[in-house]
Protein 1
Amino acid sequence: MKIVVKIGSAVLVDQKDSRINKEILIDIVSQIKKLKRRGHSVVIVTSGAVASCGNKKYSRALKAIVGQPRLMSLYIDFFESYKIEVGQLLFTHEDLEGERCGYTKELLNEVMESGVIPIVNANDAVSGEELDALKQYADNDILAERVASMIGADIVFILTNENGLMDFKNRKVVRVVEDQEGFYKARFLVENRKSSVGRGGMMSKVKVAENLCMVHGIEVRLLPGSQEDAILDSLSGKKIGTIFKAKKRP
């Protein structure tokens, strides 16, 4: 399978001291190693670069400049311990929507076919018109959606700091969402709150899941990213998080 794993800032970054939680990242890397050894191709869409720089005086672009190499160095070190090579791709608006879109798709597929794991983020360290055009991709849920649709992914895992899509009235996790009516109900369940480090919020995730499932035929699973082996447990059939079922592809 082609798998996209989107890792949110709220999963990776400790909100108290703006440091990457290495234990959580190590667990995620270990799971991706196991996925790769099972024959799956994996793309990582990662947040955390901006949030990991705690200097409040810095602009968002400067935080990205400082935080991105810190984040990548951890990915490199942890994957290197399994003898797995990774590569960094920082995309701009034109890479995803403009004339270079075709090249971006070819590049992603080339990286995956080579056995290298692509680690994707939006290029926040840009300015002017490009920054304005890129704003929607600063929400990495949308970036993950674009990447998944470009490569024809089979499944997208969105790792969040929630246990899944919550039905707060009944105090339970919604385990399955399917068909248009299911997504209609899901949007009404969402408490439109955001974490202090994330940008997208739960409404963004539901909208992205709906587009991937209903338009592109790509299944989405919303999982608690800090829970050990969440991805592997979900694939093995354990009840964890929320599964957004995809419409059958033509």
Protein 2
Amino acid sequence: MKLSVIICTFNPRRAYLERTLAALRAQSLPATEWELVVVDNNSAPPLATWLDLTGFPAARLVTESAQGFTPALIRSLREVTTELCVLVHDDN
């Protein structure tokens, strides 16, 4: 792994998050070169009930119960396995 892609989210707009994931699936860096870490920051319903991470061989969904962007980001940094991280927002 060379790169970690981080998405921290709370009650995301489903269409936006799915479009973000579609764009990540379509990018040119081979999937074996990077990992995806999605941090669910207490979404209702939980992302685990609907999020599709198909196509990401090194992807994981983790939950951070302490509300807020900072706790979610800290959790993501504890989860990554690389030194280089890219933060991707799901609402842009």
